[in-house]
Amino acid sequence: MWKFLLPDFYVKDIFQIDFEYLKQKSIKAILIDLDNTLLPWNSCEIDDQLIEWIRRGREEGFKFCIVSNNRAHRIKTCSEKLGIPAVTGAFKPGKRVFLKGMEITGTSVKETAFVGDQLFTDVLGAKRLGMMVILVRPISDREFFWTKIIRLLERKLINLMERKGLLKKF
Ligand SMILES: [Mg+2]
């Protein structure tokens, strides 16, 4: 039952991701969700901590690619500001966008990790393909109305996973 919804890691935010560990596991690229994972929902304000995180990731040899379900125009603006390519018109958990992301980074499923904040889009989509998945807590509680509804169920599942001791940190 947990198979496609259980992330490999569950951390507070992207800054908790252990680049060293990923390298040990032969991960070469990080596909990453935008809203409430990299940036607060519907925002393109980038702070120094984020810039530094991306710089460090690149220095460690990782390629990055944004995979987002949000509007193409905004993703393009953020993608340019961050200097990271993006797959637009995404429909997670559909497999196509994940495959497109890996086409951009030039990596295989086993060489790619996905980072996102939602179980039913990010985790489900990436796990179906067999990628390593890192779930982060959403940056803010501002988001689409329907996402808020889905969060109620998501919260329940995450609590249950936590109680069963299934969620790992680095
Ligand atoms: Mg998100």
TrEMBL record:
It comes from the Bacteria. Pfam families: PGP_phosphatase (PF09419). InterPro entries: HAD-like_sf, HAD-SF_hydro_IIIA, HAD_sf, PGP_Pase, PGPP1/Gep4, S-2-haloacid_dehalogenase. GO terms for molecular function: phosphatidylglycerophosphatase activity. The keyword Methyltransferase does not apply. The keyword Ligase does not apply. Keywords: Hydrolase. This is YqeG family HAD IIIA-type phosphatase. It comes from Thermosediminibacter litoriperuensis.
